[in-house]
């Protein structure tokens, strides 16, 4: 509410100065001059007095007539066209503005739906994802003399996110989400729009782009659930404009589906590697680009949909900036940028974690090649082969100490944790293709493809202790057996 008391407003642009007008402007007001004949002064005064009286009578008569005319109009309900227009404008100002603003956008389909219509149309294609895993955590009781110092114990953890139904094949319903939503999962479950929960398996992953596709077997989904879900409509994120309205839908905080709305704050935004800060430069060719929005994207929204006002998915909600000095900065992966990646993931073999007796191993000890090691020693990014186990699949495939694994079964490998994660889905005895960088006689690295038959995993405790470190002892990570 505005307070006008003791305030003074002045618009200096409306201060008139006739002296500064051009020649064709208003003429300068005439001034009364002293009469050359003083005898006529009284006569002129009487004439002016009579003229003033007549003018005053006319004004009073006109005011009374106008008032009577308005009173009759009020009693009869009649309004002039101008009055009707003014009343309509005053009484429906908001609606009028909305209608005017929507006219140009309606022609090209933008803003043609209400947010409630969008939510109703899109929610059947959004799912909630629950990730359950067992992780080793420090036994804090060891700090008080219970157990061994540094001892770890297994602990079940649970996290939640969102996903978007993007298609189906003959046997599966396919859902796209963020990789970090399903990473390290022992079991995955999906809750559909009707709150029915089904188990899901990993279809394909791309950690570099934070993308994953999971699958739910069609045979396990009831007919009632199938009748209440839908495949999302995919839009064109390349045509987004800054200021365009968008809607974010997802499983915020794990409470169930919720809807927030905002605008596109920026396009082609890049994030730093820790995903907690944004780069100001919008032309970073070596980093993925994101849609920035002020629509609230909270924990649990990851993997959910960012949709335009036609109800089309134009982004996959991925991250937000969280800081006391930051507000309204969320990020989504543009679907047009990753459409080829998603299609590739949809066509990969569906996998679930193998049983303990089927866990596999390549037959190497390896270590991550960090960025600093890459820049100083020129070793390609990936997993450095510190040693090869005798008689293993790696040895039979021709891997040597000093080789660097860059891809496993077509998936990029930049750190050893990614290789560990992938091996959990491949049983012993399966043959996979590895892409490696191997050093030649000219001390230059060349790319090579090898086929490795995975062996049975063994206890790595005794193996890693005897493994050799690569020549680059500058990195601190311990090598391990894989």
Distinctive features:
11 helices, about 25% helix, globular, single chain, alpha+beta, Thrombin, subunit H, disordered N terminus, 6-stranded antiparallel barrel
Fill in the CATH topology of the domain at 356-481. Answer: Pdz3 Domain
Major sheet summary line: 7 strands, antiparallel
**End-to-end separation:** 68 Å
Identify the overall geometry: globular
Based on CA atoms alone, the radius of gyration comes out at 37 Å
Structural class by sheet pairing and helices = alpha+beta
Q: Could you explain how this protein is built, in words?
A:
The chain has 482 residues and is α+β, with helices and mostly antiparallel strands. Among the domains are: 125-226, Trypsin-like serine proteases (Thrombin, subunit H, Beta Barrel), CATH 2.40.10.10; 237-339, Thrombin, subunit H; 356-481, PDZ domain (Pdz3 Domain). The protein is built from 11 helices and 22 strands. It has helices at residues 41-76, 81-91, 93-107, 115-122, 179-182, 223-226, 335-346, 371-377, 393-397, 416-423, 460-466; strands spanning 126-138, 152-168, 172-177, 187-191, 197-206, 211-217, 245-250, 258-271, 278-279, 289-293, 305-307, 313-320, 330-334, 360-361, 364-368, 383-388, 404-408, 411-412, 431-439, 445-453, 455-456, 480-481. The strands form 4 sheets. Strands 15, 16, 17, 18, 19, 20 and 22 form a 7-stranded antiparallel sheet that branches. A hairpin with a 3-residue loop joins strand 2 and strand 3 (172-177). It is globular, with a radius of gyration of 37 Å. The two termini are 68 Å apart. 28% of the residues are buried. Residues 20-43, 457-482 are annotated as: Disordered. Keywords: Hydrolase, Protease. One of its GO terms (biological process) is proteolysis. InterPro entries: Chloro_Bact_Ser_Proteases, PDZ, PDZ_6, PDZ_sf, Peptidase_S1_PA, Peptidase_S1_PA_chymotrypsin, Peptidase_S1C. Residues 354-440 form the PDZ domain.
């Amino acid at each position: 509410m505005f307070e006008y008391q003791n305030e003074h407003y002045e618009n200096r642009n409306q201060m008139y100065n006739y002296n500064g007008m051009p020649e064709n402007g208003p003429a300068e007001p005439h001034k009364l001059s002293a009469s050359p004949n003083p005898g006529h002064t009284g006569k002129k005064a009487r004439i002016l007095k009579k003229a003033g009286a007549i003018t005053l009578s006319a004004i009073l008569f006109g005011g009374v007539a106008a008032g009577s005319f308005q009173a009759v109009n009020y009693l009869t309900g009649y309004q002039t066209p101008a009055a009707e227009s003014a009343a309509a404008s005053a009484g429906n100002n908001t609606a009028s503005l909305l209608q005017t603003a929507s006219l140009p956008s309606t022609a090209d389909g933008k803003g043609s739906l209400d947010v409630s219509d969008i939510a109703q149309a899109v929610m059947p294609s959004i799912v909630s994802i629950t990730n359950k895993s067992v992780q080793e955590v420090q036994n804090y009781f060891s700090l008080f003399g219970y157990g061994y110092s540094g001892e770890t114990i297994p602990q079940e953890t649970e996290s939640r996110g969102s996903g978007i139904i993007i298609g189906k094949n003959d046997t599966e319903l396919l859902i796209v989400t963020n990789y970090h939503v399903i990473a390290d999962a022992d079991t995955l479950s999906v809750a559909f729009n009707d709150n029915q929960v089904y188990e899901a398996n990993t279809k394909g992953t791309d950690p570099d782009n934070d993308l994953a596709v999971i699958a739910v077997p069609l045979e396990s989904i009831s007919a009632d659930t199938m009748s209440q879900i839908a495949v999302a409509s995919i839009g064109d994120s390349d045509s987004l404009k800054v200021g365009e309205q968008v809607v974010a839908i997802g499983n915020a905080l794990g409470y169930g589906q919720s809807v927030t709305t905002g605008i596109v704050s920026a396009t082609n935004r890049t994030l730093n590697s820790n995903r907690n800060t944004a780069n100001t430069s919008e032309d970073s060719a070596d980093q993925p680009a994101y849609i920035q929005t002020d629509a609230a994207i909270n924990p649990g929204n990851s993997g959910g949909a960012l949709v335009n006002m036609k109800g089309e998915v134009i982004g996959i909600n991925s991250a937000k900036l969280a800081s006391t000095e930051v507000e309204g900065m969320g990020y989504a992966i543009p679907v047009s940028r990753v459409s080829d990646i998603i299609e590739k993931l949809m066509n990969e073999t569906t996998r679930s974690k193998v049983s303990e007796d089927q866990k596999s191993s390549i037959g190497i000890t390896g270590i991550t090649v960090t960025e600093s090691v890459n820049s100083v020693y020129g070793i390609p990014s990936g997993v450095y082969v510190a040693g090869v186990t005798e008689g293993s699949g790696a040895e039979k495939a021709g891997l040597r100490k000093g080789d660097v694994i860059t891809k496993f079964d077509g998936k990029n490998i930049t750190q050893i944790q990614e290789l560990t994660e992938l091996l959990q889905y491949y049983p012993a005895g399966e043959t996979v293709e590895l892409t490696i960088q191997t050093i030649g006689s000219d001390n230059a690295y060349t790319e090579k493809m090898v086929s490795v038959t995975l062996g049975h995993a063994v206890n790595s405790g005794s193996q890693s202790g005897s493994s050799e470190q690569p020549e680059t002892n500058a990195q601190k990570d311990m090598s391990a057996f894989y």
